[in-house]
Write a structure and sequence with these properties.
The chain has 333 residues and is an alpha+beta fold. The chain has 2 domains: 147 residues, 2-Layer Sandwich (Ribosomal Protein S5, domain 2); 131 residues, GHMP kinase, C-terminal domain (Alpha-Beta Plaits, 2-Layer Sandwich), CATH 3.30.70.890. The protein is 42% helix and 25% strand. Strands 1, 2, 3, 6, 7, 8 and 13 form a 7-stranded mixed sheet that branches. The chain has a 4-stranded antiparallel sheet with strand order 10-11-9-12. A two-stranded antiparallel ribbon has the order 4-5. Strand 4 and strand 5 form a beta hairpin. Helix 2 runs parallel beside helix 3, helix 3 crosses helix 4 and helix 7 runs antiparallel to helix 8. The longest helix has 22 residues. The chain starts with a strand and ends with a strand. It binds adenosine-5'-diphosphate, (3R)-3-hydroxy-3-methyl-5-(phosphonooxy)pentanoic acid (PMV) and magnesium ion. The site of adenosine-5'-diphosphate has 24 residues, from helix 2, strand 6 and helix 3. One of its GO terms (biological process) is isopentenyl diphosphate biosynthetic process, mevalonate pathway. Its EC number is 2.7.1.36. Its cofactor is Mg(2+). Belongs to the GHMP kinase family. Mevalonate kinase subfamily.
Length: 333
């Protein structure tokens, strides 16, 4: 038997990092997906094939008629830790252990703030649990995906696995979520081309929080308040133009606060300012930062902003909200 599942990437519109400290955040699933195929094996081995992951530290050497490969096994094992934990938890939940092949292909850039870790965890749990005959709800998959992130990263708010499993446009706080009214968001995502590790960035913010709580706590509190304001705007009776103007302003404040936490980079800030100069109403980091992506809100100006991002050295992506989260694409008996 074989199961193919997929799960989407996300952008965090407001509230990354502060969400780890129990503040609310707003996020949306977007139409880039990770696909995981799981099939039963005849033996009891578990084999993972990750087609999109590059492992640093591969060395190739030649002699006359031979070629030798050496790889950094520590790094290779670490890079697959989300998938391994997801398989473990799905098997634990099903109460069976079987040999399986898991094969991953992904459209989501890795370590770019678009939730690739959550998407791969959610799609793996979806595929493996179904393969083992377990019918989990999307919410149950979200909770297991959160556990995967906690185990691998040491800290996780759970927003990414929740958005990836459920899909759509969500307000999230301490493990609970509500759907926000669906709205088309005229956004452009700008990818710096470099990556940041969520585990390391969350740990860096934690160190600052512990060493200077009198400075960091007010920043996190301001982020939480800003998310409440953004929710009020999104659910208000204002017309779209007014909503976008207010949301843009809040995005810019959120970016400044993230910069104060220390998670921006020169390139991220360059893309943010390039987007604003080209007419975006707001622009900020999305996700953990340290590289990765920013996004801009640019009604009527998406093309201009995309061009500005390209000129500033980034890669623009015009994305749409994905209403669907985890999807079982195919089950072959
Ligand atoms: N296609 C994939 N195959 C296997 N593992 C993946 C894949 N995509 C992401 N991952 C895992 O997620 C990690 C990146 O997660 P993270 O640092 O949270 O960044 P983000 O979630 O923003 O992309 C990778 O180092 C890898 O361990
Ligand atoms: C920084 C954080 O708020 C979001 C991380 O998102 P990503 O892994 O960078 O896509 C961490 C979390 O919410 O667990
Ligand atoms: Mg992640």
């Amino acid at each position: 038997m074989r199961v193919l599942a997929s799960a989407p990437a996300k952008i965090i519109l407001f509230g990354e990092h502060s969400v780890v400290y129990g503040k609310p955040a707003i996020a949306a699933a977007i139409n880039l997906r990770t696909y995981v195929e799981a099939e039963l094996r005849r033996d009891d081995r578990i084999r993972i094939e990750a087609h999109d992951i590059k492992v640093p530290g591969l060395t190739v050497s030649f002699s006359e008629n031979e070629i030798y490969f050496e790889s950094d096994y520590g790094k290779a094992a670490e890079v697959l830790s989300y998938v391994r934990q997801a398989i473990e938890l799905a098997m634990e939940e099903a109460g069976v252990r079987k040999g399986i092949n898991v094969s991953i292909t992904s459209q989501i850039p890795v370590g770019a703030g678009l939730g690739s870790s959550a998407a791969v965890a959610v799609a793996t749990i979806g595929a493996v649990s179904k393969l083992l005959g377990l019918e989990l709800t999307r919410e149950e998959v979200a909770k297991l995906g959160h556990k995967v992130e906690l185990l691998v990263q040491g800290a996780s708010s759970g927003i990414d696995p929740t958005v990836s499993a459920i899909g759509g446009f969500l307000y999230y706080e301490k493990g609970n979520f509500e759907h926000l009214p669906f709205m088309e968001l005229p956004i452009v995502v700008g990818y710096t081309g470099s990556s940041g590790s969520t585990k390391e960035l969350v740990a860096m913010v934690r160190r600052r929080y512990e060493s200077m709580p009198e400075l960091i706590v007010p920043i996190l509190n301001a982020m939480g308040k800003l998310v409440e304001k953004a929710k009020e705007v999104i659910t208000s009776e204002l017309d779209e133009e007014e909503k976008f103007a207010k949301l843009g302003e809040l995005m810019n404040i959120n970016h400044g606060l993230l910069d104060a936490l220390g998670v921006s980079t020169k390139k991220l800030s360059e893309l943010v300012y390039a987007a604003r100069t080209a007419g975006a109403l707001g622009a900020k980091i999305t996700g953990a930062g340290g590289g990765g992506c920013m996004y801009a809100l640019a009604p009527g100006k998406q093309r201009e902003v995309a061009t500005a991002i390209t000129i500033a050295g980034g890669t623009p992506m015009i994305t749409e909200i994905s209403r669907e989260g985890l999807r079982i694409e195919e089950v072959i008996k």
